[in-house]
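re: ur question from the group chat, yeah i did fold both. here u go
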Amino acid sequence: MRNLILSAALAAVSLFGMTAQAADVPLEAGKTYVELANPVPVSVPGKIEVVELFWYGCPHCYAFEPTINPWVEKLPSDVNFKRIPAMFGGPWDAHGQLFLTLEAMGVEHKVHNAVFEAIQKQGKRLTKPEEMADFVATQGVDKDKFIATFNSFAIQGQIKQAKELAQKYGVQGVPTLIVNGKYRFDLGTAGGPEAVLNVADQLIAKERAAK
């Protein structure tokens, strides 16, 4: 698993330097994207779902943020976007639990970028609950409430669900996108950060037309 994650990351490194193509990326099952043998139910029935699996410790996920965030803000009302932390053990699990805690507290949208910056630019590890609590407190999050939520039974259930979803999606590296629980693709298969969103747009249109 570790080797596969590293291979995906190395592929992403070479692709971040590519410029976006004006024309649509040719969709080709098994190449541009993978169609899942067993589709995964979406979280909001009736809407087309786009999932991004990520890790705060991934430099490619961090570099993808300025590209994906404006795209997410412009998604039409029939599309539901959600982030799911990839949790492959060690710091992946710690950071995933951090994200799920912030999301459960309703402050993820305020703190998400600051967490990325702290880990990617400031050299903070943020792998221990006390360290996380001290940091999010600098962002206006109640420290005691954070610790209580972090250790709650509800968060444990969400961790289990996130891990199960990543397994069902067949995710082996990040960042990876899933459209409507049916199609999996990443920077390597699509051809870069702009191209991966082009693929997402086309698959969203495909799902919309199939309704």
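okk and heres the other one u asked abt
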Amino acid sequence: MGRITVRRPVTRVSIGTDPHRRADTLAVEEPLEIRIAGEPFTVTMRTPGHDVELAAGFLVGEGVISHREHLRAAIHCGGPGTGGVDNTYNVLDIGLAAGVPLPDRDRSFYTTSSCGMCGKASIEAVRTVSAYDVAAEGTTVHDTTLVTLPDTLRAHQDVFEKTGGLHAAGLFEAATGELLVLREDVGRHNAVDKVVGWALQQGRLPLGGTVLQVSGRASFELVQKAAMAGIPILAAVSAPSSLAVELAEDVGLTLIGFLRGQSMNVYTRPDRVTILPGADVPVD
């Protein structure tokens, strides 16, 4: 299986001391080609590992599948029996269940580890209609629960601890703050796709009653992916974009940014955040 980290020599420079060589741990970034029924669909740069979850979550976000039964099979290509080429685990062929329409080949696009929507013709093209009504979700979460999520996320980022170079996405129970699953990746959208893919494989979609916590900013594509998975609350430690807020408002998703320490900004649907008496958490 593909490696998650590699060791590389670096020259360490500190003011006032002599430079010295040492080994540094880096997060691996490799391409993954996702095929559907043997035909190329997309290529994304990712951290190897949980590739089936990544592909499944990506297909949920694209509106291709919405239930576990829609995903029939997934196999890494390029091994013995395929021309003698060693399996690099960088090509994944997805089989859809009978009756699930194949996606339009014109929607195929290349994504980088920093952008989950690169190559889309227009913003309107990614306003995919979700199979789940996020606006109708009655989930609420205490402010005192929300402020614990970033620290819990950070404490479970094992690869980030070694490399400092990965994003993380964690899915939490809104009622208890329990961490259900955490995934890391060089791409923030990939980390979310892996979380959603895990949920699909567990038969947990739609993800009502949960909070999706991410380690970076809240972008348009993350709101889109959360809505497509039926997640009612998305929280980020950094800023949202204007388009992320606009989409969250449109679909009725609660979007929280700058969740740090004892404070946060709630940009949309603040009615889902329960303020406990005496709590120092502004939600204006």
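fwiw on the second one: Residues 79-84, 118-123 have pLDDT under 50 and may be disordered. The radius of gyration is 20 Å. idk if thats what u expected
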